[in-house]
Amino acid sequence: MILILKKGISNCEMENLKEEIAAKGFTPHVSKGDELTIIGLVGDTIAFQDRFNLSDERIDRIVRIQEPYKKVNKMFKSCDTVVDVAGRKIGDGNFAVIAGPCSVETRDQMVDTAMGVKKAGADLLRGGAFKPRTSPYSFQGLGEGGIELLLEAKKETGLPIVTEIMSVRQLDEHASEIDMIQIGARNMQNFELLKEVGSLDKPVLLKRGMSASIKDFLMAAEYIAAGGNEKIVLCERGIRTFENATRNTLDISAIPVLKRKTHLPVIVDPSHSGGYWWLVEPLALASIAAGADGLMIEVHNSPKEALCDGEQSLKPERFENLMQSIRNMEAFRRGGFSA
Ligand code: PEP
Ligand code: MN
């Protein structure tokens, strides 16, 4: 439920109202926009409505949120969320590019690639230490050693690091070392993991499950927000369809749909969506045109030697060219499309 407050409400009136709400057993989530100030409430709000004086002159309107996702609902906040990852901002007009190899393999591979993406202008560095592979016989990632190499690459480049965490145990051991926790497509509905991540004060990159509806995706984000962590960035990474010419099908409409339904930033991973390096540029540019707040792109210093996802990885030089197109497209979008 949200309370839309009367224009011009004083700070003192607002504080009193918050205290009254808290006394009724709810946590008030205040958000102030240019036009409106709203207070969002989660819980048994039907009882709240009964107990509240609807003629209260501080309140303009009371609106019930119909959707099952409340805290991540666009109605719950008067402006879009900006997630700050160690000083790099994502959302509400702040565009960010996350780049790096699918998996951390060696010191040279990680540091070389990190230097390449830094030179090209990436904002954050990615690299998988724990890899969710379909086959148990495929390379599973370097684990703890991979986190150490990522930290070394961070030291060399100054780029904050994003890496996938697959279990509560890995979270306990490594959350404090990394700047942004990635929850991969396969774990999007690992509710225990989502609850744990929700209890941390740490940015989260939540990837869409490969067969998840937009509602499933937003409910997964709600799990994290419900625990108190609202530093969530959503990532569309392609979904399973009948089409097998591409690895997955980029659901381009998910971008404007999500941005209509939630205040959270939405980024796109064109690498896992298409599955081929030559699809990365068109999918990346289409995503910007559709309103994405950022991109996650796989880059490898020698894709043909990659232990994972080499066929969809860009060489650093190609990535550098792509960054130029990304900047142009983003500037074009910011300037507004003219007919
Ligand atoms: C990844 O980004 O490394 C990854 C495994 O992606 P996804 O979870 O989207 O498959
Ligand atoms: Mn990959």
Description:
There is one protein chain. Helix 3 packs parallel to helix 11. This protein has 339 residues and is α/β, with parallel strands linked by helices. It has 2 domains: 2-64, Alpha-Beta Plaits (2-Layer Sandwich), CATH 3.30.70.1140; 83-334, Alpha-Beta Barrel (TIM Barrel). The protein is elongated. Strands 7-8-9-10-11-12-13-14 form an 8-stranded parallel β-barrel, surrounded by 5 helices. Strands 2-3-1-4 form a 4-stranded antiparallel β-sheet, with no helix packed on it. Strands 5-6 form a two-stranded antiparallel ribbon. The protein is built from 11 helices and 14 strands. Phosphoenolpyruvate is lined by residues 102, 128, 132, 164, 184-186, 207, 237, 269, 272.
Describe the SSE topology.
Elements: E1 2-5, H1 11-23, E2 29-32, E3 37-40, H2 45-51, E4 59-63, E5 83-85, E6 88-90, E7 96-100, H3 107-120, E8 124-126, H4 144-157, E9 161-164, H5 168-174, E10 180-183, H6 191-198, E11 204-207, H7 214-226, E12 232-236, H8 254-261, E13 266-268, H9 270-274, H10 277-289, E14 294-298, H11 316-335
Parallel strand pairs: 7-8, 7-14, 8-9, 9-10, 10-11, 11-12, 12-13, 13-14
Antiparallel strand pairs: 1-3, 1-4, 2-3, 5-6
Helix pairs in contact: 3-4, 3-11, 6-7, 10-11
